[in-house]
Amino acid sequence: MSDHHAADGAPASPSAGPSAGQPAGQPAGQRPERLPHPGPGYLKAHVVRIGERRLEASMAKPVDGPDDWWLAVFWVTDDQGVVSFRDVAPASGPPADPPLLRMGPAFAGALSGMIREVDGRLSIRLTPLYPPEDQTRPWRCPLAIRTAFRWEPALVATMTPNQLADQVLAGFSRAVESLHRP
Fold first, then answer.
1. How many CA atoms lie within 13 A of 94 on its CB side?
2. Digit-coded pLDDT (tens) for 79-94
3. What is the pLDDT of residue 139?
4. Is the distance from CB of 6 to CB of 12 less than 8 angstroms?
């Protein structure tokens, strides 16, 4: 992640220019809708059920960022690699609103009581790892996200780092499953 921060102190996402983080073999200026399989995650993958499909949610090893932000990357895969947000959209088709706008409340709800509240707002930030090329089609990008959380110190002090990460991965899995519901 970048050393830059948004006005609220949250880590800012790096520039998403046309060649920023371009996967190998991807034509310059064209952002991918799927990504190759990233390999094993930090913890054992969690199952994500989308209709009859069985996908797997994984995460990279989290890091402690500046200003008490806990940073991690999450993704969902099938046999071919990281799936698209469209792969988990409702059967009737993707809604108009961006998937992270729908996913955020479900993710925060799954971690109820753990996320620190500052000035009436939960300290959670979600951004796509590869934003969609066409902002009017927000579901056409890989289901891989950067996350940032600030935790309630008293609650997370009773957990090991792996227990915390596993609970967040479980919350991510449930939040992804919620995207499939209309």
1. 19
2. 999 999 999 999 898 8
3. 95
4. yes
